[in-house]
Write a structure and sequence with these properties.
Number of helices: 13
Strand content: under 5%
Length: about 375
């Protein structure tokens, strides 16, 4: 290897190291891109109805915030009420349990009384664990503040991208060689369509899971069934782990009524999770983005291993985008062209380098670009 090759290798290694160090920032940027793409597609639908671009963007943003505010309005008040009731029901349960133990001691032989556990001794044994949980409360609060700051960062980036998406898209496209920029622009179009398909599939799956949860919990007579169903639908965005997390508050609220309802809720959520993982999500995602179930699971394991919880939350959109780039660049442009003899083809398409000053993505050419080659603000 000559000096130039060594310099190139070192530059690649340093670039990969820097990207790895800022991987969390890159994931937040990707989340902003996904949200901006979704809102931009919604704004385009308003534009097709004759609404101007500015008003269409405002309508899309208003709908998004209305959904977010409605979600918290449905979730927070019922949960606060139920868990407030849970805080004084739990001590009552402990007292009742202690009464059962004392009554049991009066009915068994005296030789077995020392083997009956005492509630106070159990609490003393659990004291170190309780202290650890209380001691980590500051970490939980600081972690919550960090989450809030990250959410604000994503919202700010989304607003910037949504205000002028073509400018940011043009900057990204110009990072590639001039002869490949039209190709990259086409790949970005396919990514945008695939992300819209993923959002549509995710919304359908969330709606079905939420509806099944509301109906099942209402039949069982569990309080706050609507809030629990909405929460189950939202957590369905997190594959595999989300349905498991959604069963915890449902079981806690069911405990307020009767112990048998806890078992019934667990069985209900198990049935819903099996239906969602085996039928709903595979069918919907296969129709919307053509993702195989095995690929979905492998991508989740990969992203959660390297990027943590945020990677798990963004695993499916990352997989959708990665699939498009691998299919278009690696497979079509590299592997399919590997040692391919174009002289045997009846039709030949040549992608050549633009002459100097004739790059359609350069700043000088944008003003004189024909109308059919430009990317309008609407698109």
């Amino acid at each position: 290897m000559n000096l130039g090759q060594w310099i190139g290798l070192i530059a690649i290694v340093l670039s990969l190291y820097i990207l790895w160090q800022i991987k969390e920032v890159l994931l937040l940027m990707f989340a902003a891109v996904v949200l901006a793409t979704t809102l931009n597609r919604l704004a385009k639908r308003f534009q097709r109805s004759g609404v101007k671009r500015g008003l269409a963007v405002v309508l899309a943003v208003v709908i998004f915030f209305a959904i977010v505010i409605g979600f918290f309005w449905l979730i927070v008040p019922p949960f606060a009420e139920q868990f407030n009731e849970l805080t004084y029901r739990v001590p009552q349960g402990f007292e009742r349990f202690n009464g059962w133990i004392n009554e049991l001691r009066t009915r068994i032989p005296a030789q077995l009384v020392p083997y009956i556990p005492d509630l106070n001794s159990l609490i003393q044994q659990a004291q170190p664990f309780i202290n650890r949980v209380l001691g980590s409360s500051f970490a939980i609060v600081s972690g919550s503040l960090e989450v809030v700051l990250k959410v604000l960062l994503v919202l700010v980036l989304t607003g910037m991208l949504l205000a002028d998406p073509i400018a940011y898209r043009k900057v990204f496209v110009r990072l590639f060689p001039s002869f490949y920029r039209r190709r990259v622009d086409g790949i970005l179009d396919k990514c945008e369509v695939s992300l819209e398909g993923w959002v549509t599939g995710a919304v359908i799956a969330m709606g079905v899971v939420g509806l099944m949860s509301v109906v099942g919990l209402s039949i069982l007579g569990v309080k706050a069934a609507l809030a629990l169903g909405v929460l189950a639908g939202f957590l369905n965005l997190i594959p595999n782990l989300g349905p498991t997390l959604s069963v915890v508050p449902a079981m806690a609220i069911a405990l307020l009524d009767s112990p048998w309802k806890v078992v019934a809720v667990l069985i209900l959520y198990f049935i819903i999770q099996q239906a969602e993982s085996n039928f709903i999500t595979p069918i919907v995602m296969a129709q919307q983005v053509s993702l195989l179930p095995a690929v979905t699971l492998i991508s989740q394991l990969f992203f959660v291993t390297f990027f943590g919880f945020l990677g798990l939350f963004l695993a499916l959109p990352l997989t959708v985008v990665a699939k498009i780039w691998v299919q278009e660049v690696l497979i079509k442009d590299v592997l399919d062209e590997w040692r391919h003899d174009h002289s045997q083809d009846s039709e030949l398409v040549i992608v050549s380098h633009y002459p100097e000053g004739d790059d359609p993505w350069s700043d000088d050419q944008q003003a004189n670009k024909p109308a059919d080659d430009t990317v309008s603000q609407e698109d």
